[in-house]
Amino acid sequence: MIRADLVIVDAAQLLTLRGPAPRLRADLRDLALIEGGCLAAHSGRIVFAGRRDEFEAEVVLEDGADVLDAMGRVVMPGFVDAHTHLPFAGSREAEFARRMSGMTYQQIAAEGGGISATVRATRAASDEELLDTILQRLDRMLLEGVTTCEAKSGYGLTLDDELRLLRLALEAGQRHPIDVVTTLLGAHTVPPEYAGRRDDYVRLVIEEMIPRAAAGKLAAFCDVFCEAGVFSADEARRILKAGRAAGLRPRLHADQLTPGGGAELAAEVEAASADHLDHASDEGLSLMARAGVAAILLPGASFCMRQAHWAPARRMVDAGVAIAVATDLNPGTCNTESMSLMVALACLSMNLAVEEAVAACTLNAAVTIGRSGTIGSLEPGKQADVIVLDAPSYLHLAYRPGINLVHAVVKDGRVAARERRITYPEPA
Question: Using one digit for the tens of pLDDT, what is the confidence trace for 313-323?
Fold first, then answer.
């Protein structure tokens, strides 16, 4: 018999997503759905996911086991938000209003706004202030069904401040149920004090930030904002190769605002992912598919920036690129923690099927951060990271845009949120 200390029973739909990772092409629509399914966990790991009759025959509950009744509800893997700028201070709502009035992102940045404005606020914030804001964001993410997230630095842009942001993001992850995977984004932009000395700043990232972040085990990945007016493809190549040599796997902000060969570069350096890709070329997508580089779609950024060009999601799927969907949580161009909204936008504005969007923000997203062996699907042996939706079908994720349908969140086999209230214990 299989012993369990937590069970979720009688789901209207149990989306297991068992099977190969990443999901590609037609397989992206395969959610391995079980109607009326049940799930059991023990010591934080899934021990059973299957039909009710199998559950009754094989699973025995330990004394005091937690039982969640999912009658009429969807049970699915927790969301994996694979692209966030989690640690930052301040806000830029005034800039947002100016963009709504017609100013461009580039114009605002040229006046000292944009990333530089958040850098000033973040540098001025204390560790305690930053940690508190990070934990508040993680709370909101948890209530939205996120159980694992990637977190980039990039708003410090000095050696000490970049390392500080990575350290605080990791500390927040240790104090919070959500698992936090960190990325060094020292190459987010050239800070004002290096104006006219961009080569010196690139050397700072390569010769000091990367070695220190790697030696301190503060990051798993290295990222670059490769864009016209920010970092060139040649600069990004140097930084990412240095990161790989130090043990930090490459990621890349690519082809967001202009076509700049970012997709091609991501394939060349065998990045874990290329993100945004609103202006990616067909050749670049083909190269990414051949190199096994995933594309992380960020529909919230395109939506909030009112862009005419959105990432060509259908072309990506048809080309055999593994796609993921994430929030791009950041203070300037997409200040939201809502993964449910990203699913809806990916369907309504990027022409993904709901099944494709669900796989893209669970199993495929887990692939991009190197965690698909432990999260992203509901299979025995994996972490019991599960969400229960207050809806009879996963189709409601797109059918009811902007509504948080998350009824309960289970993280590592413990109920971390229920009925839109956080239940995990406060840190001692």
Answer: 999 999 999 99
Q: 3-class DSSP state for residue 126?
A: coil
Cα–Cα distance measured from residue 255 to residue 295, given in angstroms and rounded to the nearest whole number:
11
Do 99 and 71 sit in the same domain of this protein?
no
**Same domain (yes/no): 319, 387:** no
- Last residue of one domain, picked from the residues 324, 351, 368: 368
Alpha-helical regions (H) of 153-259: 159-175, 198-204, 210-215, 233-245
Q: Are 355 and 361 in contact (CB under 8 A)?
A: no
φ and ψ at residue 170, rounded to 5 degrees: -65, -40
* CB contact set of 158 (below 8 Å; sequence gap of 6+): 123, 191
- CATH, residue 46: 2.30.40.10
Q: Report how far apart, in Å, the C-alpha atoms of 36 and of each of 52, 234, 395 are.
A: 7, 53, 16
Q: Which helix (H) or strand (E) holds 396?
A: helix 396-399
Co-location of 71 and 97 in the same domain: no
- Considering the domain architecture, whether residues 232 and 251 belong to the same structural domain is answered as yes
Query: 20: domain range?
Result: 2-77+377-422
What pLDDT, on the 0 to 100 scale, is given for residue 427?
A: 45
Mean pLDDT value across residues 100-121:
78
Same domain, 277 and 395: no
Distance in angstroms (rounded) separating the CA atoms of residues 302 and 309: 8
Return d(Cα 206, Cα 3) in angstroms, integer. 50
**160: number of CA atoms within 13 Å, CB side?**
4
Clarify whether residues 125 and 47 are in a common domain: no
The CA distance from 419 to 257, in Å, is: 39
Burial class for 1, CB neighbours closer than 10 Å (0-12, 13-18, 19+): exposed
CA dist., res. 104 & res. 91, Å (int) = 18
Please indicate, yes or no, whether residues 384 and 362 belong to a single structural domain of this protein: no
Helix axes 127-143, 159-175, angle to 10 degrees: 50
pLDDT above 70: percentage of residues in the chain: 97
> For residue 260, which amino acid is it?
G
Tell me the three state secondary structure of residue 81: strand
- Please tell me whether residues 297 and 412 are part of one structural domain: no
Answer yes or no: pTM beyond 0.85: yes
- Tokens standing for residue 254: 């690519």
Terminal CA-CA length for the chain: 37
